[in-house]
Amino acid sequence: MIARFTPAFVIVLALLFVAPAARADGHLDASVTFINSLSDRAITTLTDSEITADERRSQFRNLFREGFAVDGIARFALGRYWRNASKQEREEYLVLFEDVIVTTWADRFSLYSGQSFEVRGATNEPSNGPEKVALVSSQFFTSPTSPVQIEWRVASQGDVIKIVDVKVEGISMANTQRDEFNSVIRNNGRKLSSLLERLRKMRDS
Amino acid sequence: MLKTLTDLKPSRFLFAALLMGALTACATPPSDDKEALAEFEKANDPFEPANRLIFSANVAVDQLVLQPTAVTYRDLFPDELKPPVENFITNLFMPLSFLHSLLQGDMERANLAATRFFTALPTFLLGNTMPDKEPVFEDAGQTLAVWGFEPGPYVMLPLIGPSSVRGTLGTIGDFFFDPVGWVTDTPVTIGRAAGNAVVVRSNNVNQVRDLQRNSLDYYAAVRSLYRQQREAQVRNGGSTPVQPAPTLGLDLEEKSDTKETASGK
């Protein structure tokens, strides 16, 4: 009896111990797959030399919304000023933030000329919320000998999986953006309106 | 050593004068608001008005001298001669990297620096322009960081560029500490620094132009990039420290509301 049950018991035991570990790492694999598919699509759709700048921007906007936690990043970039912003200011800021990122980044893709991109793997990152966070590391070969290290901070919660930060050679884009925005506000009488004004100007230029 | 000190006199005088100027042009910390004070301390840039002034002078020098030189080098210098020139300049930094790796107790990187220096030398003479060993870059600022010194306030150095109090001390220290400086004259180390500046700048002409055009506050963007890059150099690409990061923001309204009530209590 014991002998007959033992294999099954062992399997159940193994599942008990292995399953949580496998599930915990599931988001790592999912994050790698996510970055791979997103970068493939970005390269095929955005680097097409046949499309106009406007088309490229609108396609970038779709990918950006789909792949990035745009609102979360925007709120982070505003730092402490988000809390005291009025509802109207927040709404305008979120729209401006997305518009400015889209105009600046979409045009950068037009410079792409076939450099290879390679995802290396993912590690767990501490998270300060309910979401699971993975750091997906990748290399972008601007030259064959010295690739640029790019790390993608990917957060997943339930069915939602999105990029929350990108680090280029250890430099966090979200933190750079936040330092810059905070400096603009601080040097202009600590008024959020001064930042909105500059963002508006940048979008319309 | 004494000779170098006397040679330095006019520039030391200039440095002292600039430092005095910087100290008198300090930003006043905000006293009315606790959060604003915390922010002022986090920016860690009490010399901001003076730093901004020096920064705009540096940008002008860059636009007038460095960038045109770098673009000329990039576009007109024969491509096949670039690797030997660049490797030669890089190699001149290896003795300093070796010493600092030892001081940091990092034998692996000390070995890398020495290997790179000695293997690149003969292959360079034989015409192999691509040494298979990666260079390592270590300096006194990084050594001080490993020893536990904090970077201190942000400092914008004339011509040299972004730094910190720790970085400035390191730069001065390395001027005397560099083995290449012991065996050669000051013009060699200055030539190396200038050559390196041109090479580095020639590789990021487009990136700098992009950053200048697309940043709302170029000075603040450079400050942030410098700090993060320096931190990454000290870590030598190792595990990243816990850094604030955005969240998914799914609960955009609710979370900010709870935060508001929490801070309102």
Task: Give a structural overview.
The complex is a heterodimer of chains A (205) and B (265). Chain A has one domain (5-179): Roll (Nuclear Transport Factor 2, Chain: A). Chain A is 60% helix and 19% strand. Chain A has helices at residues 2-46, 53-67, 70-78, 81-84, 87-109, 173-186, 192-204; strands at residues 117-125, 132-140, 148-157, 160-168, 171-172. In chain A, a hairpin with a 2-residue loop joins strand 4 and strand 5 (171-172). The N and C termini of chain A lie far apart (80 Å). In chain A, 31% of the residues are buried. Chain B has 265 residues and is mainly α. Helices cover 70% and strands 3% of the residues of chain B. In chain B, strands 1-2 form a two-stranded antiparallel ribbon. In chain B, strand 1 (154-157) and strand 2 (161-164) form a beta hairpin. Residues 1-10 and 254-265 of chain B have low confidence and may be disordered. Chains A and B meet through helix 3, strand 3, strand 4, strand 5 and helix 6 of A and helix 2, helix 11, helix 12 and helix 13 of B.
Write a brief caption for the model.
The complex is a heterodimer of chains A (205) and B (265). With 205 residues, chain A is of the alpha+beta class.
Broad structural category of chain A: alpha+beta
Total discrete domains of chain A: 1
Radius of gyration of chain A: 21 Å
Run of helices and strands of chain B? HHHHHHHEEHHHHHH
State the helicity of chain A in percent bands: 55-70%
Mean pLDDT of chain A: 86
**Describe the biggest sheet of chain A?**
5 strands, antiparallel
Please write the CATH class name of chain A.
Alpha Beta
CATH superfamily of chain A: Tgt2/MlaC
Overall mean pLDDT of chain B: 82
According to DSSP, the number of beta strands of chain B is 2
- Secondary-structure element series of chain A: HHHHHEEEEEHH
